[in-house]
């Protein structure tokens, strides 16, 4: 008679290591008084253009910086650096998403207390970044009008895990026959309370509510060094 | 395709557990929610690759699908939603913003040699 295999209950989150680092990052952001926002989207949805404009508009009244994830090249970092904001590229090689320890390493020699807002631009991908907490305070998912209204239904995971949806390239909406109402309904189907901001980084149309949202989220720093004493 | 890196995490986690307890793993039981952002088939395929060359090389990955459970305020009840494409109460149709379960990516148990 062969013995039955034994079942050993362990109950462990597969990404616990990432989650631990993410928790540490979140704590670092809190202590430094930085609001961290991550951006996720498919490749070519206009993340970099959107971020470029955002950085330029927020400076110099806010101290902003960006980390940019890409499989290869440092082109995006160069583009964003034109805004004058500190920018650092994370080249992930073959990895299709950012992980918390990549962010931790990239931030190692930055003094976060000198920042108000940190943007983390993820690798262009709507699937893989879903599972990885980066310690951000808010995750923004972007979709462009050229991608079609059903993107949220095809990638419910990432839309579900987002805190805000931005619809980019609205200046092209008419040209491609984009149906904003249908897109908003699809977003509401996968994540009912998710706020949706349609805008164009190129023309600036619709950028104000987004920028206003960021300004109100930045923690007040009455005494930036009090936590370090 | 981040299933391979997730599969490697699963193998590492199980290996550590197995080594610390001095047991041999026959199978890993994983609970996977539809909102975890993983493709089940890709994960199974990746698992074999990730386990190759490790003490878990002959082990199996047993996936248990977790449902999406929401809280419906009007019904004042937990409800199981059928599809991540429509997060609304299956009884009354109200959109359900409060998701209670469905993003699980959790090793629940190890099947070991007795």
Distinctive features:
heterodimer, A: 229 residues, alpha/beta, 21% strand, globular, disordered C terminus, B: 114 residues, alpha+beta, 3-stranded antiparallel beta sheet, 32% strand
Q: What is the helix/strand order of chain B?
A: HEHEEEEE
Number of strands of chain B: 6
- List low-confidence stretches of chain A: 223-229
Residues in β-strands, percent of chain A: 15-25%
Number of helices of chain B: 2
Strand order of the largest sheet of chain A: 4-3-5-2-6-7-8
Biggest sheet of chain B: strands side by side, in what order?
A: 2-1-6
Q: What is the share of helical residues of chain B?
A: 25-40%
State the shape of chain A. globular
- Major beta sheet of chain A, specifics? 7 strands, parallel
Count the E strands of chain A. 8
Structural class category of chain B: alpha+beta
Q: What is the mean pLDDT of chain A?
A: 91
Question: How big is the Rg of chain A?
Answer: 19 Å
Mean pLDDT of chain B: 92
Looking at the structure, what is the overall shape of chain B?
elongated
